[in-house]
Every structure is written in structure tokens, then in C-alpha cells.
Amino acid sequence: MQLKSSIAIIFFLVSLLAGFMLTTQFLFMQPVSNNNPVDSYQGLQDSIALLSTEQETLKSRLSLLQEELAKRQKNASDNTLQKELSDLKEQLALTEISGRGVKVILDDNFSGSTTFSPNESVCYAADLRDIVNVMKLAGAEGIAINDQRLNYATVLACVGESVIVNSVKMLPPFSIVAVTRDQSLLRNYLETDKYLVDLLNRKQAGDLRYTVESKSEIMLPAYQGSLNTDHLKAVSNDEL
């Protein structure tokens, strides 16, 4: 019981630090407005130096926590607990996975559109959500967008001209990759107009670039975002 509590605490701290690191990275990317260009530049340089120092410190602390977690897992004598931890990390996308899969490229296509319309010729977070949902429906075992692994806590949202994925700002083109045991099924879901009607119609009209390609080997990184623990509670074995 003590081991479970220790590991739970370390998982929480690792998640908290990872979330804070991504938050500082997001803040780092925000524009600094000031009427005096010299002051703006100096302020930006100071912010860069401060955030860089903070991120290096957090990376060091995160590394130490991950090492401690690895030691506790290695010393655990309960094989059942080891299996539970391994399964939990896989479910939360906290481990790398690899295998056969499918790669989708989604991009704006201003030049190819015959009747340009910002509503039709621009990639939105909603388009990414549609693709991700279809991948999940087809049984994808793991999904990443531009090297950002997705899990239950991932938020896809538009902010200005950017799309936010795991608190990271992105611009087109988007590379959406999925590991799957059935490439044919996944490609069928992504390429037929049964599920992605609007997106495929916009591709047909030349408003978007949308390609689907099978890959013999895809490596998905571990999820690096924060984990929401607001509604988590400890339970005894009798409650499981």
C-alpha cells in the first residue's frame, strides 16, 4: 500500500512538472507588446532568459522524479502491481509505441482553390478532431499530431490562426499519424466519404490538401502534457 501511494505521488509530481513546463513554453511563444521597441526587445530578451532558466530547472527536477519512479518500479516485488502500472501508463499514452500505421497530411490550399473562401481553404481544429475521432473509431492504438501524442487530456482548439495541441501552438501542415493493427480498415475509414464528408468535399474542390499513406513502421512519442487529477480519488482493493 505504501508503494502504491509513493508511486501515485511521483506520477502526480511528474505530471505537474510536465504541465508547468508546457505552460512556460506556451507563455514563451506569446507576443510582447510595448510602445518602445527598445524596451520591448529588452523585455523579450529578459523573458527568454528567465523562461529558459526555469525550463532547465524543471527538466532537471522532472528527470530526477522519473529516475525515482523507475527505481521504485524496479524494486517493487509485486508483479501484479508492475503489470497494473505498465497497463496504466499505456492507457495514458505515457510510453512510446511503434508499429504499422497510417499517416495523414492535412494542409491549407489557397493556390489550388478555384473559389477561395477562408472558411473552406483553412485547416481548423475541428478538422483535426474529425480525423482523430475516425482514427479512434477504426481502432487506432495511438495517435500523434506533429509529434504531440494524444490522450484523454488532449485539447484541440483554434487560437487565432494557430491550432493548440497539448498547449503547443501549431500551424499547417499537420501530420496526423496512428499506429494500428488494421491499416486497410483505417485507410478505408479515412478515404471514403462515409465519415469525413465535409473534409473530402473540400479536398475534391481543391480547398485542402489531404493525403493518406500506409507506413510499415511508425514511432509515437510518449504524451508530454499535463494530466488532470481533479476528480481522482484513492480506492481500496475491495472497491475495484
Could you walk me through the main structural features you see in this protein, from its secondary elements to its overall organization?
The protein has helices at 2-28, 37-75, 79-91, 125-137, 183-191, 197-204; strands at 97-108, 142-145, 148-149, 156-159, 162-165, 168-170, 174-179, 208-220. It has 240 residues and is an alpha+beta fold. The chain is built from 6 helices and 8 strands; from the N terminus they run H-H-H-E-H-E-E-E-E-E-E-H-H-E. It folds into 2 domains: 2-91; 97-220, Protein of unknown function DUF881 (Alpha-Beta Plaits), CATH 3.30.70.1880. The protein is globular and about 55 Å long. The model is unreliable at 23-34 (pLDDT under 50). Strand 5 and strand 6 (168-170) form a beta hairpin. Strands 3-2-7-1-8 form a 5-stranded antiparallel sheet, covered by helices on one side. A 3-stranded antiparallel sheet has the order 4-5-6. The chain starts with a helix and ends in a 20-residue tail after the last strand.
